[in-house]
């Protein structure tokens, strides 16, 4: 047993170390909003929260254009050249040039947008967000698998924003200060990351012409990236058109909770992308298969624990977590919970495999299918069903994209082999859900009782997995 653990650690030890760095940041990202969201929803009115959500969503479109797929292209290409310092510096310059020039264009475009719509001061404050995006080179550190530096930076940014929020944001008029607390620490830390990289002689940046090959690759990755982001933002924009800002605020806060529960999976995917990209580049197919098997087990374990846990405890959590005016968020979270499975599966199949393999065209098809489905369903359902129509449209869109990715991946991967025995996590999750629903009436919406509720769920889930594995071993032993 100990020998097997040593062999396993030798193979995947560095991956798990990198994952733990990322996980530490994601845990903080989960904990801090538990404090900040109830505070924000109490000191700022629903109208102000809804307005800021819409402006933030619209500004995200500009930031995505500025990145032009670099956040995906960067780690993949840097990972291929991480062993050659000279080549590494050259690749960094070529890729960052794309980010730099497109952000210059975007800043100009955003200025015209603000002037055209007669934007408020809040609109112009989001320029800091775009400048922060322009200076973000975390993709480089991901590519060289220096996740410690990324995690430390993110931890400092989150803590600084958390402290500044409580100092400066007290009422509706402080919404501008709220935006500054979010993005100013991020900009400062981005500048520090540049200084660190240059000081360690890992990068040398010189403004130059855009490299045609990398530009073509970045555009091919940008298209699905912008489409994916649009259909996660589009729902709020459409809801704002057909409903009011209060509904947008309720829906946005529910989505925040759903997306926070998903934070762990993309964190793990970010760790796996450079490792799988490097193995594909070296044509080490056995290593790719082994990484995918390990990844499938871990993602399945986390995903079904979160999905069934959210399904059972969402309303209890919201009753404690948010003011009375946001209680509908509990229902919205449960309706949107299937997104958890679809996004996790997409991270395994598309983000960790199809993109490192260079099959972004197939990824693009799946994303655009989901985008058009989301657009059609939202415009069809939202005018009649409001917030519920947006939820249904978002869930169906995510699943359509994921199912297409499975179909495309079957050509390159033996999915039966990779997903073998993952059914035990579905069974364990179902058992946990049923038991939690039975005991739920005996729990109140209080912090201590919520913690106990969650602990019971985790214990039941892990126990069910262990029991199934023991049974499987017994049946295998007696050849039944």
Describe this structure in words.
With 480 residues, the chain is mainly alpha-helical. The chain has one domain. The chain is built from 20 helices and no strands. It has helices at residues 2-43, 46-67, 70-80, 85-116, 121-125, 127-134, 138-143, 147-168, 175-199, 212-242, 245-261, 264-281, 285-321, 329-336, 338-354, 360-385, 387-409, 415-418, 423-439, 447-477. The radius of gyration is 23 Å and the shape is globular. The chain starts with a helix and ends with a helix. Residues 1-5 have low confidence and may be disordered.
Largest sheet, strands/sense/barrel: none
Low-confidence stretches: 1-5
Radius of gyration: 23 Å
Number of helices: 20
Shape: globular
Number of strands: 0
List keywords for this structure.
20 helices, 0% strand, globular, disordered N terminus, mainly alpha, 480 residues
Layout of SSEs?
Blueprint: H1 2-43, H2 46-67, H3 70-80, H4 85-116, H5 121-125, H6 127-134, H7 138-143, H8 147-168, H9 175-199, H10 212-242, H11 245-261, H12 264-281, H13 285-321, H14 329-336, H15 338-354, H16 360-385, H17 387-409, H18 415-418, H19 423-439, H20 447-477
Helix pairs in contact: 1-8, 1-12, 2-4, 2-6, 2-10, 2-11, 3-4, 3-12, 4-6, 6-9, 8-9, 10-11, 10-16, 10-17, 11-14, 12-13, 12-15, 13-14, 13-15, 13-19, 13-20, 15-17, 16-17, 19-20
